[in-house]
Task: structure prediction
Amino acid sequence: MTNQEFIESFRKYQKKGNWWCDFHPLAKLVFCLSLGFMSMIVFKWQVGLGIFLLASVIAVFTPVTKKYFTTLGIMFLLGCVLTVGVRIYVHLGDPGPVAFYLFGKPVPIAAIISCLDLIFMIEGFLGIFMMFFLTTEMRDLCYCLEQIGLSSTATFMVLSTFACIGSIKEKLNTVRESQRARGIETEGNLVVKVKSVLPVLFPVIIGSMTGIEDKTLAMSARAFATPGKHSALRKIEPARPLEKVIAGGALVCCIAGIVLFKMWL
Amino acid sequence: MSVCIEFENVSYAYPLTKKAAVKQVSFQLETGKCYGIIGPNASGKTTICNLMRGLCPNFYNGTLKGKVIVCGKPMTEWDEAEISVRIGYVFQDPFAQVSGIKETVFEEIGMGLENLGVEQEEMMRRIVEIAKEVQVDHLLQKHPLALSGGQCQRVAFASVLALNSDIIVIDEPTSQLDPEGTEDVFEIISRLKAKGKTVIIAEHKVDLLAEYCDEMLVMADGRLLAKGETRAVLADPALEENGVQIPQVVQLANALAKAGKPLGAIPVNEKETMELLEQWRGGRDDGAGSK
Result:
């Protein structure tokens, strides 16, 4: 892209060319929050599975498909399998209809359903939120939040926190590379990687905190304290009616789902 | 010329220290001039810059005695937002000045303007103009954290200049830069000077300061040792006595004067030195010829 084309691009609404990635950030947030909390509050495997499938279908039509399923798979293995193991162990030998026997003790059907509820609650919640974070730029979300009245200080805090995570990751990589240059093992399985990172994690985090003073001064030099509404270089298209309907629909579904499952079912 | 910054018997101590970083300093800075602040390490150069910008004591706390007056108004009466536009401040560490939340140099330069609520079209016009001026136009699409130290410092200059401040305070802008980056920074400073901005630079590279600054302020142990026209200040023997580094060309002139062979004037750059040396050699040749 030439400089002129790049500068011109700021005159238009920022687009990525994918329907879900270009979904209005606030509408998307409302949609994902509604479904995520519905999965958590209703706590039924049918609801969780539905939300997880919906998030997965959306993921298939976005450029983050591979990343989404890889991350979700890791989380599934780490979180859910462990939780299921604990749940089955806790309910092992409980009275009620038996699903199967484990170590000679009955595992009740209720325990299996309880496991499924937990697994799909987590998968539904994580799936929809991961879908949101993988396809939404925080600066766009913050811009939209500023437009509806959130203070620029709050949005800066959100953005710099996310930026800080990236910078800590970068610093950790630098430290790991310098450790490798000194002959310390840093590559290999997860345990080796964790062992190489743990001793430097705390100093790196503290080191990042010491940069806060510099950052504050730099912001002060950029007239950050100026009262009144800040303007923006990037333009985000206002939410289209269909996006509003989808977000509103998700909110209504969430409320209805909670009422239905918690009060009547 | 009108006075833009005035220090009236200013003393300042950082919190948790008893020793003042700046002691009874008084001076006036005139609008449109370029001032250099020199002195050994821990002589109070950065503190003077921080006092001018109101960071001491507003940000760092500490104890301030005396008065700092900016454009006729005491610093205590200035609003933080107002002063940040009136006085642009470029810091030592180029990377610490990057906001960290913008993904291109173009947006990074525009951040100050966004904070001021400038309209998008005007913002874009000013960013392009400033980027050309400080020669970062070829970097506009790059990530600010992917730049070299020199490039990053130029972007920091651009971000501050975009605010169109009348006074620019620059604290050791080249301390982390290579010679090429240093040249770039001083080129920007000469452009600012040409635009009639008041520029105040605290710097160790006295050779370059002597070339660019109209006046010098010399700090030693928190006190103002000397202030005045660059040539006159650098000729002061008290500077070397107090451990203040002076330009090599001035050292040469002083050495020749001590040896009873004065150059006739104190040079502040290589070109002047060469001219003076030519004249000096011509004079000696003439003298020898007449004998």
In short: The first helix of chain B runs from residue 45 to 53. Chain B touches chain A through 43 residues (CB under 8 Å). The radius of gyration of chain B is 21 Å.
